Amino acid sequence: MRETIDVHKVFAGYFTGVEALAYAVSKTLEEGSICLDLKSFLQSVETNDESWQQNPFKEEAKPVDEMIADDQFVTDSAETLKPFVIQNGKVYLHRYFTYETQIIEHIQRLGKNFHIITGGPGTGKTYGVASKLVELFIGNHDLNVAMAAPTGKAATRMEESIRKFTGDPKNNLTTEIKEKLNALKAKTIHRLLGYIRNSVFFRHNENKPLPYDVVLIDEASMIDGAMMAKLLSAINAETTFYLIGDKDQL
Known about the structure:
The chain is of the alpha/beta class.
């Protein structure tokens, strides 16, 4: 019978002295978080709770204050290149700290052009998006619009929702506006950015931004930190950008 490999244990084994902390950070990433909450980690150690009991390095772990003060692998400086960064009570792998920093910087750069459309299922997010597109097209018939989502299935649903809106006679749309909406095609984010085979980079980036007036991204809660940073880097400062997603996930 093939033995199951604990990849978090293998990863943490490279960081002598802070293995327990490294293991907890790796597990947190697997669970979908971009960083480990330091206060929660401290409490898990103090109370010997289930998450600490499952940590394979708990028996030989140094005291937590020594782990977080480790000079070889841990830093509290954004400028110092070490594997783990502690900032604002959170523990990050350095590259994920970089992604989060980039996301914040890009949101600030976009300023009033950055928008979020959110709400629970069935609360009218699609109607709001389509209504906004109608408003934008009325203001500029030559508007260049891109729609995308993390997966092909989500992109298809996005298109179908727009078609349903345009087909509803209650919305009282002109033929020209209907044609504009129906001509829109949703892509995956990878296709939007220009996937480069066998590469983590894309054709569109901060040096070659996307050539659109408006970019709408659905199912935003499915986007991980790395992809979000790369997506935002490819958005021109003059582009109007919308993130769409459920309120309890976004």
